[in-house]
């Protein structure tokens, strides 16, 4: 009803009819709602100006609720490295972690009655013939990072699913292979400091996988 008489409303009514729903929206009902308060401010951090937006509230789907406490840091102008340095400092000081899952996806999960999303699996990078070395490296890096960050977001959010841990380890293995094998294509390759951190994370995840395997399979026997 909010879009009645508009082009958006016409297209929405057409899509509803195709899906077998009444055009007036009588068959529609909300799957979840979001009650969020946002506080924001703009500040300078090093050589950058950033906007901080703190979202606090709840997602509600029927009788199920999920708390929201999310800080977005957006670069308004200046050097992105200053934003990253601010994020690093606050991660250590306040126990923050990077989460790439949007609130809308969390709401859909809540509506389905699941606490976490599916594991993120590897996808081949989309390469083009005209790409030079650095562009190829960045595209492959983005493909590896998508698998790593997607699963790391769920692990950090408390997922007990061993598939998230497994796919995160697969992503780290792919990322390390890329950094070792194709670093000659990128003049600003991160090198050894990143590799040491990735190895430590890979080993910690392996220990978690082994503990779960023992608890699920051997303790019962």
Order of helices and strands: HEEEHHHHH
The biggest beta sheet, please? 3 strands, antiparallel
* N- to C-terminal distance: 60 Å
Shape: globular
* Uncertain stretches of 5 or more adjacent residues: none
Overall average residue pLDDT: 87
Number of helical elements: 6
Give the structural class.
alpha+beta
Secondary structure: helix percent? 40-55%
Give the amount of beta strand, in percent: 15-25%
Strand order of the largest sheet: 1-2-3
C-alpha Rg (nearest Å): 22 Å
How many strand elements? Answer: 3
Task: Describe this structure as you would to a colleague.
By secondary structure, the chain is of the alpha+beta class. The chain is 49% helix and 19% strand. It has six helices and three strands. It has helices at residues 7-18, 80-94, 103-112, 133-156, 162-181, 192-218; strands at 33-45, 48-61, 64-78. The chain has a three-stranded antiparallel beta sheet with strand order 1-2-3. A hairpin with a 2-residue loop joins strand 2 and strand 3 (64-78). Helix 4 packs antiparallel against helix 5. The mean pLDDT is 87.
Question: Secondary-structure map with pairings?
Answer:
Blueprint: H1 7-18, E1 33-45, E2 48-61, E3 64-78, H2 80-94, H3 103-112, H4 133-156, H5 162-181, H6 192-218
Antiparallel strand pairs: 1-2, 2-3
Helix pairs in contact: 4-5, 5-6
How would you describe this structure in keywords?
globular; alpha+beta; 6 helices; 221 residues; three-stranded antiparallel sheet
